[in-house]
Amino acid sequence: MPSEAPAEGSPKVALSTTGMRRLDGGRFLMGSESPESWPADGEGPVREVELRPFWMDACAVTNRQFLEFVTATRYRTEAEEFGWSFVHFSQLTPHQRKTLAPFRVQGLEWWFRVDGATWRRPHGTGVDIERLKRWDHPVVHVSHRDAAAYAAWAGKRLPTEAEWEYASRGGLTGKRYPWGDELMPDKKHRCNIWQGNFPTIDRGEDGFRGTAPVRTYKPNGFGLYQMTGNVWEWVADWFSPHHPRDRVLRDPRGPATGDRRVMRGGSHLCHDSYCNRYRCSARTSNTPDSSTGHMGFRCAADAD
Fold first, then answer.
1. Domains of the chain
2. How would DSSP label each residue in 19-73?
3. Closest CA to 54 of 25, 29, 30
4. pLDDT in tens, 60-103
5. Separation of alpha carbons 86 and 292, rounded Å
């Protein structure tokens, strides 16, 4: 299975499956051919995949867990090395909105390059995660390299994309979300996405404008929390929009090389008027050195 080594000279801890769930694997249907999918994302075709058993973190890696890694290894994230990261304008202070220039992405001016924005200070201001009381929130402003380094230090690895989708479905077949097809069954929030008029008004109807603690909502059928919404999650695979459908794919790992890594699950910035990628089959990608205020990860491990 794919893995990356921790930072050179970093100590490594023994694998602990505490906080993980053992998944049996087996065959499942991966992908979607729904009209709501984005063709360029390559969600389809629906194909049959067979997986070996594996372990998956029940939750996205938290700020508290990432602090343990940094304390043990003195690791510096790529955002810390670069001195900046991307912050969505909805997360900026009034002063930042007046003084910073937007960074145009796909013709949209929603993202700002913010000096000092890191996992410790997600908004780039002097207010850190301790003062924000976000130790149980998912770590953000982490690149693919940062995620892989943490996973290797913990004796784990990033999940493959197929493992991630199998895990997100929680044993359900062909459903839009980890709990079924209805976004809000019984009018209850089941994931942390944008609630309001995107991109200007987030009413935070579930109590959150931005990230939420990693165990805020009910887990899926496999006991995994927030596989959709809250933060995008890096997976191991290089991105490709093309998938074979004429055979059963056994433990697929994606292309051997590429320039973008796959991200899964959507985030608190997703809304069906623009980006409804908070579905089990939805996917997107980014360059491995990218970091933003809505990107995190969870880990996996081989099962005996």
1. 20-302 (3.90.1580.10)
2. TEEEE--EEEEE----TTS-GGG---S-EEEEE--EEEESSPPBHHHHHHHHHHH
3. 25
4. 999 999 999 999 999 999 999 999 999 998 888 888 888 888 87
5. 5
Residue 259, token pair as written in the block: 């320039």
pLDDT tens figures, 199-234: 888 898 988 999 999 999 999 999 999 999 999 999
**Residue recorded with tokens 């900046």:** 84
Measured between alpha carbons, how far is 105 from 138 in angstroms, rounded to an integer? 24
Q: How long is the chain? A: 304
Pairing of strands 232-238, 295-296: parallel
CB atoms within 10 A of CB 175: 17
- CB-count burial class (<10 Å; 0-12, 13-18, 19+) for 149: buried
Gap between the Cα atoms of 9 and 250, Å rounded: 35
